[in-house]
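step=encode ok
step=design start
structure_in=
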């Protein structure tokens, strides 16, 4: 029987100073006059609240467990704008006590004073898009910050009293050696974050790098050596891998992302935001997304015209969507969670489960969906078994 899962809120802030050549997120360079101050902060917060009001009937009575400001570069928005949104949102939604509230930030765009302001507004977790501590690598990635900027930003956040910090690092970068990848991890560890995301550079469609691949990208074997050796270094420093690209100290896993991976619900507001909700009356699982371009979103937020689309997931689609998330977790999930979050019986996935176990990709446990070490190496192949 399907049961209503925990609920999160995702808020998309779509602007950035410069779009990176590898980025396929819904991010837009701001080209207005006057720099940072010319961004339409007030108008966009108004649009977010109108968007939230439009979607509220879908989540009446439910509690928000986590909130994530993603982008784009959310730290382009000053603390006052974040505070205003949180105050208006909390007047409409019930937030859990000590709800995790994360703000993504780019070391090249923050002014190192506002962290105390973000903390006062209610932000209690920061995610720094550092990507590398090698200035040459950063330049090749099109980043606008230096390694020194990143170090100063992280320390400024800690000085402001925010100790729940994530550092994003990429590996298999153009011109990067194994030794350089390890130095990046060591540099991040020296800043004592609570969480690290460590993921391979990929050439995503519709990006500059896909159209014009940079020279010097390590081959598959080189990338695997980087992942393996960096993972060992992280483990030795007390960071346990709990998801394909996520590592955390004990008790510091990202609660917001865990809700995604456990097929929880999330309300998505903002330009291009996606949401996944279990509908109260019918208990159907619905995905909803908003129009991507900021100007169109600003003009239509709070109306049907802002919705890019709705999709009800039927019984043939639900197993794949569930596994796409759950099998990214090292520990997996109980099989009972599949039944509770999809409303389907375990017999609906018995055939692909048998194939996955026969291939040595899933542990032979009748009550748990847990990838083996081999299965974690072939995550996409495992998940593909559940695609009808």
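sequence_out=
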């Amino acid at each position: 029987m399907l049961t209503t899962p925990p609920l999160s809120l995702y808020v998309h802030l779509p602007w950035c100073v410069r779009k990176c050549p590898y980025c396929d997120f819904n991010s837009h360079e701001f080209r207005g006059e006057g720099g940072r101050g010319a961004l339409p902060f007030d108008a966009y917060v108004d649009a977010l609240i109108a968007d939230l009001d439009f979607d509220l009937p879908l989540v009446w009575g439910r509690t928000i467990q986590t909130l994530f400001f993603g982008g784009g570069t959310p730290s382009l928005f000053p603390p006052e704008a974040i505070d205003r949104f949180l105050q208006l949102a909390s007047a409409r939604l019930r937030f859990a006590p000590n709800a995790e509230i994360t703000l993504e930030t780019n070391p090249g765009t923050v002014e190192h004073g506002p962290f105390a302001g973000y903390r006062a507004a209610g932000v209690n977790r920061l995610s720094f898009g550092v990507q590398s501590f090698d200035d040459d690598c950063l330049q090749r990635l099109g980043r606008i910050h230096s390694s020194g900027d990143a170090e100063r930003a992280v320390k400024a956040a800690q000085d402001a009293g925010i100790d729940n910090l994530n550092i994003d690092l990429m590996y298999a970068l153009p011109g990067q050696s194994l030794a350089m990848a390890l130095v990046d991890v060591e540099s991040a560890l020296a800043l004592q974050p609570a969480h690290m995301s460590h993921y391979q550079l990929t050439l995503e469609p519709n990006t500059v790098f896909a159209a014009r691949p940079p020279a010097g990208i390590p081959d598959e074997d080189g990338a695997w050596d980087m992942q393996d050796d960096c993972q060992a270094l992280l483990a030795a420093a007390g960071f346990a891998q709990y998801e394909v690209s996520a590592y955390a100290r004990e008790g510091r896993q990202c609660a917001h992302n865990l809700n995604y991976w456990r097929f929880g619900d999330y309300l998505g507001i903002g330009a291009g935001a996606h949401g996944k909700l279990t509908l109260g009356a019918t208990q159907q699982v619905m995905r909803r997304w908003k129009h991507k371009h900021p100007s169109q979103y600003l003009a239509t937020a709070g109306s049907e015209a802002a919705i890019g689309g709705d999709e009800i997931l039927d019984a043939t689609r639900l197993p794949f969507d569930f596994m796409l998330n759950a099998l990214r977790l090292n520990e997996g999930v109980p099989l009972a969670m599949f039944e509770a979050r999809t409303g389907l019986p375990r017999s609906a996935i018995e055939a692909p489960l048998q194939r996955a176990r026969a291939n040595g990709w899933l542990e032979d446990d009748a009550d748990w969906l847990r990838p083996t070490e081999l299965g974690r190496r072939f995550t996409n192949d495992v998940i593909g078994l559940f695609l009808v």
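step=design ok
step=annotate ok -> The chain has two domains: 7-259, 318-384.
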